[in-house]
Structures are given as structure tokens and as C-alpha cells.
Amino acid sequence: MTRGRETEASACEACRDDAGPDFDFTMAFQPIVDCDTRTTFAYESLVRGLDGSGAPSVLAQVTDQNRYRFDQRCRTKAVELASGLGIECLVSINFLPNAVYEPAACIQATLRAAKMFGFPTDRLLFEVTEGERIDDRGHLTAILADYRERGFKTAIDDFGAGYAGLGLLAEFQPDFIKIDMALVRGLHVDTIRQAIVVGVLGMCRSLKIDVIAEGVETVDEYQWLRGQGVRYIQGFLLARPGFEHLPTVEWPRV
User: At 157, which helix (H) or strand (E)?
Assistant: First the structure.
């Protein structure tokens, strides 16, 4: 317990000082498109090494000692770059629930960055990944509820591939669910994946949750999803992440 209190106190002090982790990184941005209007609905900010290396090389440097500072710096870096790139739609930021000690306190660095760079906070979308083990679901729902009260959008990322899933949905309904790419891959010829995705779509319609299909790489996957009424799509078929820039969306010829 003493170690926990010391860790939290140290993290809070780092937040007040706007201290970053002991390594540097930057962001790439990948469009999430609205297929109904053929516009970019949001950009997901994705961590990258300064040399352009992928997220695994950055995440491998995250430890229990620097997790909090890394999470805070991800948020402020995303806001800074989004403002500089002139993004006028939503910006999606992945966050680590286990790095948030107290929602109201831990959001302050993000709010300061938004004010400093002139980025509207109603354009912020926070994604929690199912891939991070959640030991305290009540704590996570408190974070999400706090974000909603502040006017942020919320999403569960990688739905169907991790720890959160249906149990979390029973306690909190986010604005968006992102269907994991493992379910999207080849689903146009896979009746098992089709049945699962159709079930998720029906559940989300009942709960009034919008669905984003991520990891779409082929025209066949795109057409199948559109045939099921999926409006929001993200994936290499449309655009790869742009390293510190906004890539052009290439609409499939269907």
C-alpha cells in the first residue's frame, strides 16, 4: 500500500510539472471515414518513434515507473500535433486506464494542452483498448463517465479481442465500439466471423452505440461491412497512418 501511495504521489507531481517519460516519441494519424458522406469523421493518433518506427518499439519502453507520464504525454502530444495539422474533426486518443489515478486530476494536462494550442475539447475522442487488462472495472467506468460529463466522446477499441467486452458494456455504453481487425479479416468468406459481427451490430443498434470497423484492407471486406450498414470504417484500404501528417483517403471503386 505504501508503494502505491508513493507511486501515485510521484505521478501527480509529474503531472503538475507536465513532465514527460524518459524517452521521446511522436504520432501518426489514420483517418476514420464516414462512408455515408464520404468524409473523414475522425483521425486516430498512433504512437511512433521519432525515426518513424511502429508502436511496438515505443510501447516496449513503457514500464510501471513511466506508464503515467507516457499516458499523459500521449494525450498532450496528440493535441499539439492535431492543432498544428489543422484537424477540424474528432481526434481519437488511446489511453491507459491503469495510468489514470483520479479522472478529474489526470485530465488537467490534456485540458491545459487544448487551451495552449487552441484545440476544442469537444473534438476529443478517448479510446480504451480491450487489450489492457482491467483489474478494477468500476474505476474504468468512473473514468469514462467523467469524460462523458466533460463532453468528450468515448470508445472501446479492439472489441472482441481483449478483456473488457460485454461485461463493460453492461455497466457503461460508450459512443463507439471499434470492431477488432481480427474479426474483420476475411469476414466476407467466413460465416463464423459474419455471425459474430452481425450479433455485435444488432447489439449496438439496440444500445444506440455507433460502430467503427477497423483494420479493413480489402474491397470485399469493405463491401460486406457496408452491406450490413456499417457507416464508419478505418483501415489500410482507405489510408495508412500518416507520420506527422494527414494522409489522403483513397475511396474504393465499388
Answer: strand 153-159
